[in-house]
């Protein structure tokens, strides 16, 4: 089908070919710039985690305060994502992207120079805020740069692989920097990455304001930011408080009410922040759900397997990061095959449930670890299987979630994908942490808790419980994806293309 211009008319053959050829040298470099920027945002969700013990010893904050180094980033990022996406639509993707890169780098440098707990928390919150501007701009730039369906699939395989594997890369880089240099370099490294992203973005990106005639939906922005903030905060409280605590269920309830009010307002707003037409497409809604479930289930792989490798197998931070690399490789290969080969031929109703089913099998297999397990037999084959499964889910789901939207909605659609992943991660963090802690407590009941062997086995019970529940989440994803996705090939791709703005 001919590519359409923003006016809705297809260019003539010669003009279309000329435009396409003129854009060709640039768009793959643009993909590289977007990939670098996205990696910076994604790896920051985990790179600091490995450095936390060193930072705690250096700055002298308590175990109870340690979680806020992670939570401050998540709260700011999740609550401001839709606003960041709309800013990109209203004021242009290039300035939003560049401002996000510069702000993220400045916040990282501020955090690396932290002299106390408060300064580090403030820096992490600023990182999250600028990440909320950068991430949707990057994804929407990808969607509007690649106009050919086959090339878009290849680009999304790269982007989706980074989104899925960035956490593992963060663990590796965090371990290397902490061991070789200092915990502060897990933040300073972003400055170097940002220089590359900013230089490439400044030279290569063009600017276009697809929603220049619209206005910012202020009531909608306040409602959704407050709703996402309270929802993520409620799940964060579930880690440190009981689920029956008002600080948990109260915030979760408030978040649900605020998001319901936001949905109601979007049906009445003259310029809605999140036009409901974005959510009402069946394949897109299924893709948002798939990203949410993947975000929740992936937590079981990264956090609890990191604990197991370091505390039970005695791996150093660097060796732990290296141990995740086979999963990253499997994910990247599966991402390429899933988006460029399988999705265009057999459609999402087959590909994405298949990916979830493979990830389910891998997580269930991983739950067989014990005190005498070895990495080569008890971890390596399992995480490769999980990587294959996630590679068949994440990139295709992200491509379908943002494909086919009007150009003026590209930023907010991209922000919704990021929000789903972030909220999913918050749900997984709270749910799996609680279930794992309960499993350890239940195992210790009636046993000699002073025995080292008993305590070690209780820890294994907590890990395997988390893995089983992650498998259950992926199994639910298998069923939900199969029921929600349409039969046949994706119907969005033919109309998804927009003009490349240089």
Which short descriptors sum up this protein?
502 residues, mainly alpha, Growth Hormone, Chain: A, 2 domains, 19 helices, 80% helix, disordered C terminus
Structural class: mainly alpha
* SS elements, strand count: 0
- The CATH architecture of the largest domain can be given as Up-down Bundle
Distance between the termini: 22 Å
Query: Roughly what percent helix?
Result: over 70%
Q: What is the averaged pLDDT score?
A: 79
| CATH homologous superfamily placement of the largest domain | MFS general substrate transporter like domains
Fold and architecture overview:
The protein has 502 residues and is mainly alpha-helical. The chain folds into two domains: 22-216 and 273-496, Up-down Bundle (Growth Hormone, Chain: A), CATH 1.20.1250; 217-272. The protein is 80% helix and 0% strand. Mean pLDDT is 79; it is low at 1-22 and 492-502.
Short summary:
This protein is mainly α and 502 residues long. Helix 3 (63-91) runs antiparallel to helix 4, helix 3 runs parallel beside helix 5 and helix 13 (325-346) runs antiparallel to helix 14 (348-366). The protein contains 19 helices and no strands.
């Amino acid at each position: 089908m001919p590519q359409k211009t923003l006016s809705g008319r297809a260019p003539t053959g010669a003009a279309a070919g000329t435009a396409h050829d003129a854009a060709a040298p640039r768009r793959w470099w643009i993909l590289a710039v977007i990939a670098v920027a996205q990696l910076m945002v994604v790896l920051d969700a985990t790179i600091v985690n490995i450095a936390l013990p060193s930072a705690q010893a250096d700055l002298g904050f308590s175990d109870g305060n340690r979680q806020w180094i992670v939570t401050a980033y998540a709260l700011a990022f999740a609550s401001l994502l839709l606003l960041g996406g709309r800013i990109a639509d209203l004021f242009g993707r290039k300035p939003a992207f560049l401002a996000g890169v510069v702000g993220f780098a400045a916040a990282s440098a501020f955090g690396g120079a932290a002299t106390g707990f408060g300064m580090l928390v403030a820096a992490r919150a600023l990182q999250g805020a600028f990440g909320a501007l950068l991430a949707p701009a990057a994804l929407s730039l990808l969607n509007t740069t690649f106009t050919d369906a086959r090339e878009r699939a290849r680009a999304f395989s790269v982007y989706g692989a980074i989104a899925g594997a960035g956490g593992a890369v963060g663990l590796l880089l965090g371990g290397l920097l902490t061991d070789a240099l200092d915990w502060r370099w897990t933040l300073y490294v972003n400055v170097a990455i940002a220089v590359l992203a900013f230089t490439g973005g400044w030279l290569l990106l063009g600017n276009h304001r697809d929603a220049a005639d619209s206005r910012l939906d202020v009531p909608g922005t306040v409602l959704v930011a407050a709703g996402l903030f309270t929802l993520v905060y409620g799940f964060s409280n579930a880690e440190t408080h009981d689920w029956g605590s008002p600080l948990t269920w109260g915030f979760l309830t408030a978040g649900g009410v605020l998001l319901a009010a936001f949905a109601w307002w979007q049906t009445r707003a003259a310029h809605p922040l999140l036009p409901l037409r974005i959510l009402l497409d069946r394949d897109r809604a299924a893709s948002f759900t798939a990203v949410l479930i993947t975000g929740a289930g992936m937590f079981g792989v990264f956090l609890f397997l990191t604990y197991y490798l370091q505390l039970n197998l005695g791996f150093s931070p660097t060796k732990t990061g290296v141990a995740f690399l086979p999963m990253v490789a499997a994910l990247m290969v599966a991402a390429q095959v899933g988006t460029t080969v399988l999705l265009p031929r057999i459609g999402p109703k087959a590909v994405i449930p298949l990916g979830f089913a493979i990830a389910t099998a891998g997580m269930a297999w991983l739950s067989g670890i014990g005190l005498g397990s070895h990495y080569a037999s008890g971890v390596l084959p399992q995480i490769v299987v999980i990587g294959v499964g996630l590679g068949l889910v994440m990139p295709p789901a992200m491509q379908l979630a943002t494909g086919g939207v009007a150009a003026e909605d590209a930023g907010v659609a991209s922000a919704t994908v990021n929000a789903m992943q972030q909220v999913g991660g918050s749900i997984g963090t709270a749910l799996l942490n609680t279930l794992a802690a309960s499993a350890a407590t239940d195992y210790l009941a009636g046993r000699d808790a002073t025995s080292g062997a008993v305590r070690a086995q209780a820890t294994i019970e907590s890990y395997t419980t988390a893995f089983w529940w992650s498998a259950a989440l992926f199994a639910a994803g298998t069923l939900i994806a199969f029921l929600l996705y349409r039969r046949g090939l994706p119907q969005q791709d033919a109309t998804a293309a927009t003009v490349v703005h240089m």
